[in-house]
Design a protein that fits this description.
The complex is a heterodimer of chains A (about 190) and B (about 230). Chain A has about 190 residues and is mainly α. Chain A is about 65% helix and about 0% strand. Chain A contains 9 helices and no strands. Chain B is built from 8 helices and no strands. The radius of gyration of chain B is 37 Å and the shape is elongated. The chains are: A mainly alpha (about 190), B mainly alpha (about 230).
Chain lengths: ~190, ~230
């Protein structure tokens, strides 16, 4: 993963943060099945997890479903948390794996969405292409309009900060495919946002 | 020197600083004289920059109550009691019970007509074996207490208080037996009482651990049964 200090919230690159310094007691309570402690864990980390899930899924509603599944999974598995990393890092990894499972399962059900993107990558053609004027939308909503497959790679690379090599390994695709998907996503988003 | 337009992925790599120095220099030269490609690069940079500054999203307020309900209906998988802990308890118990049995057998043997010296030796031997048995019982008790303390949170406070009270009664019996043996080390009733008290304590601790396990699995069993 690369380090980018300009990131408003350097999600996956943070291994220990201030909230985790207060965590040992919280973790112990969570491990005893204390739901109130989980509420605290949720308050601290839900935004980070939800952001990842909603963006990967391309829908806030699905993001909330994933958020629920992730916290339920954490509740069931926290007994095995050995404290080798910060609890936030452990939770994020679990969330990322859950989101990747979701993506893989969805990909298995539908055709690769890359087919829906214009494959003409000549810069002149791309520069000339514009969507309807007056359709300026924010980046968040524009990302939801990206085809699945393209969106996940873009989120992992440009939002979460993973390298192409890492994304390729996570999604089982070639590194070149990851690069190509990010390029397509950026161009599509640029068109949507202009 | 690039004479034609670089492809999109190359421009994208240029934005991501993913090109070799030579390739990067070629693209830079091309951009200096190609407004179309420069526009593409600017657009790619704009999106990249905006994506890197996206704020965190907050789930709706209704999300937590829904999650909370699902947590309460679920069973947390807690850290299982390590096998090593159980084995240590079992090993200590085995030795303690064997020693206790040995002591009881020796005492059950009919008094012989051998000399007083032999009787003294036997008494000393029983005392030593008792001490050994006590050590092993104590070891088993410590192991069980550790397991009990780790899982104490699973019991409701009232049950936990009752169990603690019972344990303190047994502890009192152990203390009294020890005090009696201090005064009269060969006292058979005191020896028997100490061994019985240890057994009672272990039995109580085993019940406590079983209860803790039951409480942990309770909701799952209830769900399966419903």
């Amino acid at each position: 993963m690369r380090q980018r200090d300009t990131r408003a919230f350097p999600s996956n690159r943070v291994t220990v943060n201030r909230t985790d310094e207060e965590s040992p007691d919280l973790v112990a309570r969570c491990q005893k099945g204390d739901v109130e402690a989980f509420a605290e864990l949720y308050a601290r980390h839900s935004a980070r997890i939800f952001s990842l899930a909603a963006r990967m899924a391309g829908s806030p509603e699905t993001g909330e479903d994933l958020l629920q599944e992730i916290f339920l999974q954490a509740y069931r598995k926290i007994g095995g948390f050995k404290g080798g990393s910060a609890i936030g890092t452990w939770l994020y990894r679990m969330a990322l794996n859950h989101c990747l499972d979701f993506v893989r399962s969805r990909q298995a059900k539908m055709d690769k969405a890359t087919a829906t993107i214009d494959d003409d990558e000549r810069p002149a053609a791309l520069a000339a292409r514009r969507d309807s004027p007056g359709e300026r939308i924010d980046l968040e909503r524009a990302m939801q309009q990206l085809p699945a497959g393209c969106r996940e790679v873009f989120v992992l690379h440009d939002v979460e900060g993973y390298e192409h090599k890492e994304i390729a390994a996570m999604l089982g695709i070639a590194e070149g495919t990851s690069k190509s998907q990010v390029f397509k996503a950026r161009m599509k988003l640029r068109a949507l946002l202009t | 020197m690039i004479t034609s337009h670089p492809d999109g992925v190359t421009l994208n790599d240029y934005v991501d600083d993913g090109l070799t120095a030579a390739a990067r220099a070629d693209v830079r030269d091309h951009l200096a004289s190609c407004a179309e490609c420069q526009t593409v690069v600017d657009g790619l940079r704009g999106v990249q920059s905006a994506a890197s500054r996206l704020p965190l999203l907050q789930p709706r307020r209704e999300a937590w109550p829904r999650i909370e309900r699902s947590l309460r209906a679920s069973v947390p998988a807690r850290r299982p009691v390590p096998w090593a802990a159980w084995l240590a308890v079992a090993a200590s118990l085995l030795v303690a019970v064997a020693l206790g049995f040995q002591i009881a057998s020796r005492r059950a043997q009919p008094a012989s007509s051998t000399a007083d010296a032999d009787t003294d030796a036997t008494a000393q031997s029983i005392e030593a074996e008792l001490r050994q048995a006590e050590e092993h019982y104590q070891k088993a008790i410590s192991g069980l207490e550790q397991i009990k303390n780790d899982g104490k949170g699973s019991l409701d406070p009232q049950t936990a208080a009752t169990l603690e009270k019972n344990l303190s009664v047994v502890d009192q019996a152990i203390s009294e037996s020890r005090a009696a043996l201090k005064v009269q080390p060969t006292s058979e009733p005191a020896q028997a009482s100490l061994l019985e008290s240890f057994k009672a304590k272990i039995s109580l601790l085993q019940d406590t651990v079983a209860l803790i396990n039951e409480m942990r699995q309770g909701p799952a069993l209830t769900q399966k049964g419903s």
